[in-house]
Amino acid sequence: QLVESGGGLVQPGGSLRLSCVTSGFTFSGYIMSWYRQTPGKERELVARIDSTGTIRNYADSVKGRFTISRDNAKNTVYLQMNSLKSEDTAVYYCNRYSTPLNWGQGTQVTVSS
């Protein structure tokens, strides 16, 4: 199970921290990812992190602004989002990277003044 939280309404330039609490699998054994989706568009990979938290990859559109991290003791993956832009507005989801589970409900992030 994947439960995302932490979204909300924020002004451009602001920050949010998303959390994804997982259960039902051995979290520490999987690469985890954050994705986002806007109406009418396909889900986009935003960031991924390897099982130990050592290797992180980002979409070009968020590089330098977003940071993915994980706490294997808490079965949780995070996404720190800074310098938010209106184009970051989307529903954000987490999932396993290579063998995705059923998608959670996501968390809405709206960047607007």
Can you put this structure into words, describing what you see?
The chain has 113 residues and is mostly beta strands. It is built from no helices and 10 strands. It has strands at residues 2-5, 8-10, 16-22, 32-37, 44-49, 56-58, 66-71, 76-81, 90-96, 107-111. Strands 2-10-9-4-5-6 form a 6-stranded mixed sheet, with no helix packed on it. Strands 1-3-8-7 form a 4-stranded antiparallel sheet, with no helix packed on it. A hairpin with a 4-residue loop joins strand 7 and strand 8. The model has no long low-confidence stretch (mean pLDDT 97).
Labels describing this entry:
4-stranded antiparallel β-sheet; mainly beta; 113 residues; 47% strand; 10 strands
**Largest β sheet strand count, sense and barrel closure:** 6 strands, mixed
Low-confidence stretches: none
* Rg: 13 Å
Give the number of DSSP strands: 10
Given helix and strand content, the structural type is mainly beta
Percent strand equals over 45%
What is the general shape?
globular
Question: What is shown here, in short?
Answer:
The protein is built from no helices and ten strands.
Tell me the layout of helices and strands:
Elements (H helix, E strand, L loop, with lengths): L1 E4 L2 E3 L5 E7 L9 E6 L6 E6 L6 E3 L7 E6 L4 E6 L8 E7 L10 E5 L2
Parallel strand pairs: 2-10
Antiparallel strand pairs: 1-3, 3-8, 4-5, 4-9, 5-6, 7-8, 9-10
